[in-house]
Amino acid sequence: YSIMHHFTIHKRQLGVWFTETGEAVAQVWAPGASAVALELSDGTLLPLTADTSGYWTLGTDRLRPGDTYRI
Known about the structure:
mainly beta; three-stranded antiparallel beta sheet; four-stranded antiparallel beta sheet
């Protein structure tokens, strides 16, 4: 008895990067998490949104290059 699983694998960028328009994009893989947020240096929490693959993503103009943050 053999079961084969087929997966579609897409290359994804993880971490935080900035688009050409200056928007910050944060993406992490946390399939077991019930919530993920990016915390700005002033304590503001910006929640990331999960997809069905366990990736969490946020697009925001509230983070600029050089700002401190944590996820």
